[in-house]
Design goal:
Largest sheet: 5 strands, antiparallel
Helix content: 55-70%
Radius of gyration: 35 Å
Length: 544
């Protein structure tokens, strides 16, 4: 390790010990290393023993920086895995991270725009509206039309911290892959690489602005999801300006109920929004923790989701979408044989896998979760069983789907909070069946014709020339084939003559040797020489 990595590792260990987080570890072999660190760093004491464990966990993650804060945000959505008090503390990492000085935010904004804030905005508030792991948000009004906007600005000096943590994660991932054979199938280095890409993408707010514009266009005119308007003229790499929205944070269950929100419909639309983004658009919001998701106040009986912070988006290619859709439908139809075959066909498990055994293992894990509401399903237990199944059949993690998997965790966490009785299968299955029907059969043909029609219309005037070129190339190809055929026939005749000479010479040599051995006369000597010449000539021709 480099000195900077050693220093960062020490900082992480010291922070965890200062907040007494070693108390969270159960008495298992895996907890020996942290307890050894406690004994080795005996001079570091728990400085926050008066605080609850959940608060200590939040403060430690907040202290360690954005990489750890992001992890805490994901943990906060899994309220089924943590005590309520701890989950509430982790939820504060979504939009209540400690802010940086508003005056410093003003300076960064003015530096990015090249002038004072008052040149473009009125009523700029130096007190942040919300703070997160990588940026914080301030409110203002556009000077041109008085519209309320929010200005998102990147935290200062955050890049070195992120890069240091990423380097350390790479180092640890390589060590894990080298020394723990069972972990290699999890592709730890590839997973870190994917995580690095998403974090660095978040640091470029021009990319987030483009993502928001695309997502808004995808749902233009639809009631399910609203994405605030982005004012790209004011956006820079470390500054983004967008429409200010008013809504109820999705984690505020009491507020949603007080507003009369149809919770069942809201939960079902959340699932529909996710599958629409993934399968229809191949472009999905991949950071849907509660701090980034709101619900509109108006029309609570017909609720509308509001999506913010599009810094992390995911995309899937056609093969990934087709594979996922077929897997989902096979799961929903309890066709575990098809699930096993899809895993083998895609190469996610070795091709020599016993299909019958693999099918039975999948059935054992998945069958118990059907026909149960979310509140009765222990997804932690299901995931543990799936992990054991994966290890047994050498299933490999697919790095390109890491974002999708994380988003599914968020969706599940939100669904559990909003409407625990949501039937996820009945909600998603019709959508996937409709999507699959558009990929195969007559609808797929019509869709392909519609998609390719503009290209064909563009090429139509060139059709006569293309036909002429094709015919000319066909004639040239025929001529070339004829030439090759003639050369082949000549070569074949040559080879036949060569073989005849070779066989005749060899026969004459053998016969002459027999006669010479019987000492009949001098004729065999001449025949032997002649046969040798014929045999050698035939051999040379065959060799050529």
């Amino acid at each position: 390790m480099t000195p900077s990595e050693i220093k960062r590792l020490y900082t992480i260990q010291r922070t965890l010990l200062e907040y007494g987080l070693d108390e969270m570890l159960p008495e298992q072999p895996l907890s020996r290393l942290p307890k050894l660190a406690r004994k080795s760093l005996f001079w570091i004491k728990n400085q926050h023993a008066d605080k609850p464990l959940g608060e200590r966990l939040r403060l430690a993650m907040q202290s360690l920086g954005p990489v750890w804060i992001k992890f805490g945000q994901m943990m906060s959505t899994r309220r089924d895995l943590f005590p309520p008090a701890m989950a509430e503390q982790l939820a504060m990492l979504q939009d209540r991270v400690a802010p940086f000085d508003g005056k410093l935010a003003r300076q960064q904004i003015e530096k990015s725009l090249g002038g004072t804030i008052e040149t473009w905005f009125d009523d700029f508030d130096e007190t942040p509206l919300a703070t997160a792991s990588i940026a914080q948000v301030h409110t203002a009004r556009l000077k041109t039309n008085g519209r309320e906007v929010v200005l998102k600005v990147i935290r200062p000096d955050i890049v070195p911290v992120i890069k240091a943590d990423i380097r350390l994660m790479y180092r640890l991932a390589r060590l894990v892959a080298r020394w723990i054979p069972e972990a290699r199938r999890l592709k730890p280095v590839e997973v870190v690489r994917e995580y690095e890409k998403t974090l660095l993408d978040e640091l470029n707010l021009m990319r987030e602005a483009a993502n928001a514009i695309q997502l808004r266009r995808n749902f233009d005119g639809e009631r399910m999801l609203y994405v605030p308007e982005t004012f790209s003229d004011y956006c820079r790499e470390n500054l983004m300006v967008s429409e200010r929205i008013y809504g109820i944070q999705v984690s505020d269950i009491e507020g949603l109920k007080a507003n009369g929100t149809n919770m069942k419909l809201l939960a079902e639309r959340g699932v529909q929004v996710f599958f629409t983004q993934v399968f229809r658009d191949s472009f999905f919001h991949a950071d849907m923790h509660p701090g980034n998701v709101f619900v509109a106040y108006d029309h609570p009986e017909d609720p509308q989701w509001i999506g913010l912070d599009c810094g992390i988006v995911g995309t899937l290619n056609r093969e990934d979408k087709r594979y996922l859709a077929e897997n989902f439908l096979a799961f929903f139809n309890r066709d575990y044989r098809r699930v096993a075959e899809l895993h083998v066909d895609s190469g996610w498990v070795p091709h020599d896998t016993d299909i019958d055994d693999f099918e039975f293992a999948i059935r054992t894990v998945c069958e118990p979760i059907f026909e149960k509401p979310l509140c009765e399903i222990s997804f932690g237990h299901v995931l543990l069983n799936l992990f054991n199944t994966a290890r047994r059949f050498n299933m490999e993690v697919q790095p390109q789907l890491v974002l999708l998997q994380k988003t599914l965790l968020y969706i599940e966490g939100l669904g559990r909070q909003l409407y625990p009785q949501l039937d996820l299968w009945d909600t998603a299955k019709p959508f996937l069946e409709e999507w699959m029907s558009q990929q195969v059969g007559p609808k797929a043909v019509l869709n392909a014709l519609r998609d390719r029609a503009p290209y064909w219309a563009e090429k139509l005037p060139e059709l006569p020339e293309l036909v002429y070129d094709s015919l000319r190339q066909g004639r040239m190809l025929n001529q070339r084939v004829d030439t090759l055929y003639q050369q082949f026939m000549v070569s074949r005749k040559r080879q036949m003559h060569a073989r005849l000479l070779f066989i005749a010479g060899a026969t004459l040599v053998v016969c002459s040797a027999i006669l010479y051995g019987n000492k009949i006369d001098t004729l065999p000597v001449v025949s032997l020489v002649a046969g040798g010449i014929l045999w050698f000539s035939g051999w040379r021709m065959v060799a050529k």
